[in-house]
Amino acid sequence: MKKGLVLEGGAMRGMFTCGVTDVLMEQGVCFDGIAGISAGAVFGCNYKSGQIGRALRYNKKYCADPRYCSIRSLIRTGDLYGADFCYRELPDELDVFDRQAFAANPMAFYAGATDVATGKCVYHQCRDGSSLDMRWLQASASMPGVSRPVEIEGRFYLDGGIADAVPYAYMEGLGYDRNVIILTQPEGYRKKPASGLAVMKLFLRRYPRIIEAMAVRHEMYNRQMEEISRREREGSSFVIRPPEALRIGHTEKNPAELDRVYHLGRREAEKRLPELLQFLGK
Fold first, then answer.
1. N or C end: fewer C-beta atoms under 10 angstroms in the chain?
2. Percent of the chain at pLDDT above 90?
3. pLDDT digits (tens, 9 = 90+) for 5-28
4. What are phi and psi of 156, to 5 degrees?
5. Are 178 and 2 in contact (CB under 8 A)?
6. How far is Cα 193 from Cα 218, in angstroms, rounded to an integer?
7. pTM of the model
8. In terms of Cα–Cα distance, which of 198, 238, 195, 186 is closest to 218?
9. What domain of life does the native source organism fall in (predicted)?
10. Torsion-angle region of residue 261: left (phi > 0), alpha (psi -120 to 50) or beta?
């Protein structure tokens, strides 16, 4: 039995995921591998480094800092979330990412990003928290329209959720047959067609495959939700999701709101913990 953890994105809805994963880390729950998309990758990497509370801590501290996320950053750098601040200064100096622990942990960690030339999601195994790994985390969370495509080894990438919202199928393809899936929307949520797609076409006119993927993104997402629900009913996957809509902004600036959603995740994880341990055979 190969145990996997699958993490959906969702910007600051990811605080729910952080609450869940912190409880799992506190309880010593181990997985053979993790796959994360967007915020699921950026926040989920702390599972492999064993840094309980880190994602909540730095988000609460810097959420209102214009270097972290602001229109000023978008105008000055082309990225709503400041790339240098988020992926260098913060992990290297302000709230240090434990690369040594990350590299030493044998658990595999995969981050997905969408190749702008193909419109397909590509996965990278992050092994040591190197600058290359950080580039993949940045790419995975680079939202179209408010982020520059991230260049990695001659190719360009944007948010992984454009092409693969929840990477359960990717993990199954790698042989993970006992997957815990953490979602950031409540049961029954279905995505509507993207609003403002005409405007987005202007920003992304150089990347027609991204535009095509975004036009059908709601269909991909809703199909995945149906498939995940089926796996949950069959008992092949264990799903943790919010009990209600999280109602938090994508770029939430209020630390109290981040804390609220984080603790919703903690409570849901604590409530479901006996079931989860049974699912994992513990």
1. N
2. 95
3. 999 999 999 999 999 999 999 999
4. -120, 140
5. yes
6. 5
7. 0.97
8. 195
9. Bacteria
10. alpha
